[in-house]
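Deliverable D5.2: sample structural annotation.
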Amino acid sequence: MEDLGSANGTAVAGERVVGSCVVVPGAAITLGDLRLEVVARARPIASRPRTPVAEHASPVRQDMSIRTDPVAPRRAPPWLRRGAVATLAVALSGLGGWASAQAWDRPLVLREPVANRCRVDDIALLEADAAADAAALETDPEAAVRAGLHAYLRVSATVCAEQSRAGGTLRAALGRMDSQRLGEHAAALRAVAVADDTRVAALDEDGGVTLWDRRGPGQPLPGVHTAQAIARSVDGRWLAVGEVDGHVRVWDLHDEAAAPQVQVHGSQAVSVLAFARDGRLVSGDTGGRLKIWQAGLAGGGWQAMTELRGWPGVTRVELAGGALLAFGAGRAAVWQTGRPTAKPLALTTGFALTAAALDERGTQVVAGDAGGVVTRWELGRRPRAEALTVHAAKVQAVVWVGDAVASVGADDALRVAELGRRVRRAGPPLVLVADTPVPVDSLVIAGGGRWLVGVGIEGALVTWDLQQRSRRLPATLRPGHRGAIEGLAASEGWVATAGADGVVRAWDMSRDPAEATSSPSTLIHDACRALGWSEPGCR
C-alpha cells in the first residue's frame, strides 16, 4: 500500500501510511470513509459469486483478496441489485473513479506473494544490517543518510532487501534531515519547554522530566518523579517544574552544580507554569490559586509577589506587561497585576471558550469559543471587544502574529485576521485563509515571525510561510511522530515537539522546507532514488 501524498491520508491497521508499507492478511485499510479489509482465502475466488465451498473441501492454494463487503448467502432480486449498483456507482464516483459498484459484488484477487528465499545467514544481509546499526548511531543527520545509503545499497538488489534493517535506517535518517530526533521516553509525553539555547525540557506521563540537548545526550532531572508542569525562562537560565505535592522546583541551568530552589505554592498539585519575558514566573494549582514569583529576592531566591484567586481547571497562564491571562474549563479572565485586589476582566462571548492568548505588550487579548467566533479585547479602563473572524466549528487554537491573530478551527481551516489591514475604514480586518492538510489543535510562531507552525493528532508538523501574504496561504506538511503531538514550543529558528510516541524532536525553521525538498543535494537525491522517491524529504 502506498500513499502518494493525499491530503486526508491513508491508514493501515489504524496507523497513517507515510510513503509505502506492507499490508498483511487481516489488516484494515481506511481511505476516507471507505474501509477495506485484506483477507486470506483457502480457495481461488470465482469470477462470479457462487455458493460457498464446504469447509471440508481441500484447499487449492493460498490467495489474498480485498473484501469490501461480506458475501451474502442469498442474492437479492435483479431489480433490487440493479438499483443498488446504480446507487453505489454514484456514491463511489466521488472517490476519484478508482472503484465501481462491481467491487462490492466481487472481491479483488491478488497473487500470492513470492516465497521468501532469503537465508538468515546471508552474507549480504548480515553486512547490511551491521552497517545499518552503525548508521543509526550517527549523530549528524547528513552523515546518517550517507551511512544509511551505503548500508542499503549492499542489499537493495538482493532478495534480502525487505528483511534488512538498512531500509528502515535510511528512511529514519532522511526524516532527520527535516527534524532531529533528540531522544525517547518510556512513556507518552505531555509537554516541552524551550528557550534561546539548544536544550529542550520534556515532561512525560510518568511525571519524569528530561533535559535534552541538540548538541549532546539528554539527562533526566534527579529526584523528579511526580512533575505536572514545566516552563523555561526566555533567556534559558531557569527551568521550573511544578509537582503534585504543591512544590515548585527551579533549576539554575547556568550553574549545573547548584541544587534546585524549592518553593511552596500550596497544598494542591501545581498544574500550570509560565515565564514572562521579564523573568517573572507564574504558577497555578488544580484548585485555581495563582501566584507570581520574582527571582533575585530574599537572598537570591524566589519570592511570591502576588497571589490571585482563579478557578479549578486552569490549563494555561500568560504574563505580559501588567496583565495576567488565565484560561481553562471554558473560561478566561485577565488581571491587572499592578492592582491585585481589582476585579479581573471576565472574557465572555456567549459560548464556552476553547482558546485564548495575550499579546507581548499585555494590552490585548484574543479568545476563540465553541461557536467558532474569534474575539479580541483591548484592555484598559473600558475594555472593548471586537469579533475578528468566524470558523465553521469550534476554535482549536489562537496565537498572536505581530499585529495579526491566527486561529485554527475544528473545521480544518486556518484564518489570519490582520488588524492593521481593514476591508474598509473602521470595518472588519482583512482575513487570510488556508486549509490545514491534517487536523491542527496547537499553534506557535517561529523563525522571527515568519513561520506559523501547527500540530495535532496526526503526528505531523504543518507550516505556513507568513511572508507570502496572499489571500490563500500555502501549507507544508512534514511527518515526524507516530501518534498525536502533545507538546509544541518554539525557540529562535527552530521548533520542538513531544509526541504520544515518547519521542522528542527538534525542527529546523531557519530555512524554507520547500526549498530543502525541491532542490535536494546529490546525497539526498541518491537516497530518494534508492528508496523509490516516497520517503520524508523526497518529492
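Annotation notes: The first strand starts at residue 10 and ends at 12. The helical segments are 78-92, 123-136, 141-155, 166-176, 513-518, 522-531.
The annotation will be released with the project's public dataset once the embargo ends.
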